[in-house]
Fold:
Amino acid sequence: MNLLIKQSQILLPDGSFLLGDILLQQGKIAAISEQIDPVDTSNTEIINGVGLVLLPGVIDPQVHFREPGLEYKEDLHTASCACAKGGVTSFLEMPNTRPLTTTQAALDDKLRRAASKCVVNYGFFIGATGEVLPDLLTANPTCGIKVFMGSMHGALLIDQEEILDRIFAQGRRLIAVHAEDQARIAQRRQEFAGSTDPAIHSIIQDNQAALNATQLALKLSKKYQRRLHILHMSTAEEAELLRQDKPQWVTAEVTPQHLLMNIDAYSKIGSLAQMNPPLRSPHDQEVLWQALRDGVIDFIATDHAPHTLAEKGQAENTQVPTASEKSSANTIFLEPATIPSGMPGVETSLALMLTQAMAGRCTVAQVSRWMSSNVAKAYGIPNKGEIRVGWDADLVLVDLKEYQPVIRQNLLTKCGWSPFEGWNLTGWANTTIVGGNVVYANGKVNEEVRGSALKFT
Ligand code: DOR
Structure:
């Protein structure tokens, strides 16, 4: 079936909107015009876009979907359904699964699993280990090499400068770093051992820990002119560093959480606010926003990192604790070191950012640049991220008039919670289209749709 979306506000690559029609044929955008009449009505499904805005599908460039090995938290099918609901039509997934994605064989296994169960498009990182496996140079297709400089991840942790230097020296493909200084974190964890205040997490893994690692990654990238991407940048200091000194082969991203939540979140949602790198101060948030608007930060990723409520210490008691509960032996107040860091995000990211646009903090065109076209450009994903004739029909129709709160019962992520529960958002996906097929509409995922493996040029 061809799809004809009638009379939506279509976001064009120059940031302007056209009130018009768009025809999708064989997975591609076939025509965009003020008015298109179907040649063959029997073969064309018509979608009424009146009152809706049509955007390129979101490409989320940092997610942890837990398959293989940790499917009790999430799997490629449930996560991709959550993507479809959130208007995310492509994702780039991280290698900290079980087994780790450090070989061509492990990458092939993920690609096979994704082909059989993902309702949106998929790409995968390959993980670097201290051993520096040859597959790091040759693995295909991959969006890049993931390096955990800190905050632990078993064999993926690389906190020695000599080993990092070797990785930066070999090959040319993109290196994406989780930049936190492990030695500093380990030392501060000892200093603050025993604290059960969830907010201690942001104090242990402080701004300096993030800055130290970002400085080191930048130094090595400059030494070898190596393509570097800084994942989930969280501090004012890192943003200022890049503002002063950002080679043209370096990119950076920020998460909606770091833009929209700060350390106050611990008193509201406790351990659910714990992620790596941690939430920061209102000042950091402001500087990150400005860096994003100025192009110092290139795009947005969710770092979707689901953990169960039981792991977060909140399986039974999901209420904000009272002062007396705090002083009792409440399981929410496990030592943060024993609680896994991370929060889900693919279902809410587009609506969160579009709500900011409607509040005047940025424009809808900027949101789309940060969540689609800039990501496609940075990772060399051809024919995606903009609405152009001949490009892939990965699209999302959003409603910018109605507001709906984030409700736990409506979530599709297997972990079943969101740090944004109760937030009243607009810009929810009305219809999501992947490869010319409707994958989400009328509040339902079409689980028959399959995405494709992304290509990286
Ligand atoms: O908070 C986080 N959790 N940050 C990461 O970078 C990893 C992630 C996870 O996999 O749980």
Summary: Residues 143 and 270 are 34 Å apart (CA to CA). The pocket of DOR is lined by residues 64, 96, 178, 275-276, 303, 305, 340-342 (CB under 6 Å). The first strand starts at residue 2 and ends at 11.
